[in-house]
Amino acid sequence: MPMRKSAPEDQPKHPIQVVARRTGLSVDVIRVWERRYQAVSPGRTEARRRLYSDAEVNRLLLLRRATEAGRRIGDVAALPTDELARLVAADRGAEPGTAAGPEDFVESCLEAAERMDSVGLEGELARAAVNFSVPVLLERVVAALMREVGERWHRGELRVGQEHLVSAAVRSFLGGLYGTSNMGGTGPVLLVTTPLGQNHELGALMAAVLAAADGWHVVHLAPNTPAADIAAAARQVDARAVALALAYPQDDPRLVQELRLLRQQLEPRVALLVGGRASDGYTEVLSEIGARQLASLAEFRAALAELRTASAAAPSPRSR
Ligand code: B12
Hints:
Elements: E1 14-15, H1 16-23, H2 27-37, E2 43-44, E3 50-52, H3 54-68, H4 73-76, H5 81-94, H6 102-114, H7 118-131, H8 134-154, H9 160-181, E4 189-193, H10 202-213, E5 217-220, H11 227-237, E6 241-245, H12 253-265, E7 271-275, H13 283-288, E8 292-293, H14 297-313
Parallel strand pairs: 4-5, 4-6, 6-7, 7-8
Antiparallel strand pairs: 1-3, 2-3
Helix pairs in contact: 3-5, 6-7, 6-8, 6-9, 7-8, 7-9, 8-9, 8-10, 9-10, 11-12
């Protein structure tokens, strides 16, 4: 198999024992696939020990999946990696009685990220969207994927470029879902954003998708929005509620001031819903301003449902 040795994913760095652990293949099988089928062509240390690149590890993983799906190694060993990935994805979708679970999609998204395959990654997300309900898709595929990306990045197993590839693909995927879910929203208006200094935007986008799927008319603003602008937008669209996502940092004194200012400038009837991994850092101010702090997307849905019931019982003069 022709291999470029220049890109970081093509640098030989993993000894065969590590490759065996990562791929679930035995050391003997890896050697046979290399010797007999030229499935990979590892580099060598000065002591002539094999060293495999990330791309080769990924390729071996795909070959393992292809053989598990019933293919003969001799038939697939020479395929280009992209083609192999497509074959494995198709085999997985086609296997009767073994429908892929959310964790399978997380795994195949991570594999696509490792090989910097944004098209493959978007394809996996699109397939997951067909397989699962919106809450399962968001919680068990998208959020689980991002958590795993964060952990691997933290451990030095994923490069920043690979994390950025996933973030961009997930951002565009969620944007698409938001667009299609939000078309018929005739319910009350929900404004979703992240406040000043909060640049992680995917939590807000997930909240926007979920609310739109539940029939809210969602107005989603880009992240890092000053309190005065959130309040002005909420007034203009006659929002029933504002949802904020806080991800990092957990201890920004400026944000405490912003949250107070937001509450002062919002009409009293506008509910303030706040979630995200950093929200625990702001519990005191959130409780002071009467915002609802929500520990999960499931709690968020329940809070939205309550608000809708309350709105239906006492609609505001301008409510939709
Ligand atoms: C993608 C990412 C980025 C991207 C963001 C891209 C984007 N467009 O949003 C980029 C590269 C820009 C980035 C930058 C940074 N990041 Co970052 N990032 C991540 C990563 C991998 C995923 C975040 C994400 O989107 N998750 C998906 C969301 C939806 O999941 P979640 O936050 O867990 O949310 C769940 C709940 O909290 C809830 N929820 C979330 N939002 C909301 C909102 C509402 C209303 C409700 C009800 C619920 C809710 O639902 C979700 C599902 O359960 C995380 C890892 C991780 N474990 O999350 C790190 C992570 C958040 N980042 C981290 C860090 C340190 C940084 C940087 C400081 C890195 C640096 N040195 O520059 C910068 C800071 C940027 C800044 N100024 O804010 C740390 C934070 C550590 C900490 N102490 O909190 C993390 C945890 C990585 C790590 N393991 O160390 N990051």
